[in-house]
Amino acid sequence: MNAPRTTERHPLHTFGQPVLDRRQTRVKAAWIGIWLIFLASPVRDLVEGGHGTAATVLGALGLTAFVGCYLALVFRYTTRVHEWRVVYVTFTVLLVLAVALALGMGSAWLGLFVYAAVSAGAVLPMRRAVWAIPAVTVTMMAIGMRDTGAADLFPGLGVTTLLVGFAMTGVRQLIRTTVELRQARATVAQLAANEERLRLARDLHDLLGHSLSLITLKSELAGRMLPAHPDRAARQVADIEQVSRQALVDVREAVTGYRRPTLAGQLAGARTALAAAGVAADVPLEAPEAGAAPDEEREAALAWALREAVTNVVRHSGARHCAVTLTRRQTLAGPVLELAVEDDGVGPAPGAGHGNGHGNGLTGLTERLEAVGGTLDAGPGGGGRKGFRVAARVPLGPDGGGQPEPAAAASPGVLGSSA
Predict the structure, then answer these.
(1) What CA–CA distance (Å, rounded) separates 381 from 342?
(2) How far is CA 85 from CA 113, 128, 132, 173, in A?
(3) Which pTM was predicted?
C-alpha cells in the first residue's frame, strides 16, 4: 500500500516570525490591509469632492504612493530592522505625502496622519517614536485648524492619532519580545543538546575507559607470553573476552537508557509538533508525579504511543484541534494510567481503521503495550464526532500481569490537562 501523500503546511499565525510561504504572506497582508478601511474618507473625497482633473490625478497618485510607503514599513520592518536608512527615508516620504495631501486636498485627508503615527510606533526606535508620534499629531492639528479648529479636532482625530501611535509601540515591543523568546528557546534547546552530548561522552568514557585500557594491557601481555607460555597467554585471552562481553553489556544498557522516551519529553514534543502543524493543542503541561507514574518500561510504552498518535495527527488527520489527556482509572484488575489522543480530523485512512485494520504503527504499539501488561484502543472519536481517538493504558500496580478492564467500566480520576 502506498503511503499517503502529505504536504508540509506552515501555521497561519506567524506572530513574531517572518513569513515562510505565499499562504502566510496572504494572511499577513490581509491583517495589515484590513486597516486601510480608514482611507475611505480620502477616497470618497477623490470621487465626490469636486476637485479638478489635475488635482484628482495627483491626489490618486499621492494616495497610492502613501499606501505603498505605509505597507512597506509595517510589512517588512515591524519585526526586525536591518536597514535603518531605508526606514527613515520611507517614513519621511510618508509624512511629507500626508502633509502635502492634507494641505492640497482638504481636511478629509487628515486621517493619513493616523497611518503616519502607526508607522512611527511600529518601526522607529522607541526613543524616537515617543517624539515622532506627538509631532505627527501636532502637525495634523496645525493643518486641521484651518477648517475645523483645534477645539473640535483634538478630542476626536487628535486623540485617536496619539493613542493609536503609542499603542503600536506596545505591539511592536510585544512582537520583538516574542522574537527574542523564540531565539532564547532555540538557544536553550541547543545548549540542552550540547549538554546531552557531553553527558553521553562522559558516560561512555566512564563505561569504556577502564575496560578498553584493561583489554589493551592484557592484549600486550598475551602477545609477550604467547611464544613461551601459550597456556598463560590463553588465560589472558579468556580474560579479554570476559572484559569485552561485560563492556558490551554496559554499553547496551547505557544506550537503552538514552533511547527510552519519557512522557515529559514526549508531551513537550507533542506541543511543539502540533503547534508547528497549525493544530490547536490541549496537552498536559507535566507528566504524572512519581507516586502516580508507571515504572520506566510502562512509561516508555506510553511515550511511544503518544509519539505515534501525534505523528498520525500531524501527517494524516487534517485536524484543527487535538486533545491529549492523562487519566488515572481504577479497574477490577487494579489502577491503570490511560493516555488518550483525540483529534477532529477526517478519521482513519482506508485500511487503517480499528480492529484488525490497524496499520503497522498501531500494531507495533499494541505489541509494545501488551508486553508490559497494557492495552491499546483506536477508533473513531467518541460521541459520534468525526476524528480519531487512540487510548493506551498501562497498569500502575507492581506486577502488571493482569489485563486492565476497558475504560468504560472504570472510575476516572483525571490527573489534569492544560491548554
Answers:
(1) 7
(2) 21, 14, 16, 21
(3) 0.48
